[in-house]
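Hi L.,

As promised, Uridylate kinase:
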Amino acid sequence: MRVVVSIGGSVLAPDLDPERVAAYAEAIERLVTDGCEVGVVVGGGGVAREYIETAREIGANEVELDRLGIGTTRLNARLLIAALGDRANLAPATDYEDAGAALRRNEVAVMGGVTPGQTTDAVAAAFAESVDADLLVYATSADGVYDADPNADADATQFASLSPAELVDIVLPMSRNAGASAPVDLLAAKLIDRAGIRSVVLDGTDPTAVVDAVLRGDHTGTDVVPVGGDEPSYWTEER
């Protein structure tokens, strides 16, 4: 089974805790040991936001801000690579070809941001599409997709399952607001819809949640299921 896991920076390294990074590396190693080919896209999190806000105050333009964010995602990716040791590529892949080549070498392919104007949400979806991944998992600080921002609306309802087109419809109005509250961004949702990628959005605070979702399809988040899509056969195999 080929899976791409998108790990938010605020999930992997909220406060640069080595135990948290090591726990994520252990979770990824478990997937590899169980026979999965794993690609990982790492976000920038709070550290990236601090750099971006500081740079904005001193006059940096939007492209410069994006490059700062990309640099931070790659620093976080290097943390995970260090924890994975020789299981991973030596340095964060800087494009999809490099990441795909790492998978073909039977390495965990770790990358951060790629280009200004594109979030790591979208990078993960594009990477998953480029390598024909069986599953895309977003490990976020949210516990799934809701019909409204659960932090602002006590009546927000979580979706257990959505089609990719429904995900686009839900994310679209959220993406128009400053400080967008969408669990994945609009471009990522559109890429998932275009490619028909089976996806999961879940709370990644506990790395074992990713293991359970990938190996067995067990989670408390939201499934994004293409119309007519079947469960990955991996979930029904005896291992």
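The first helix runs from residue 9 to 12.

Thanks again for sending the construct details.

K.
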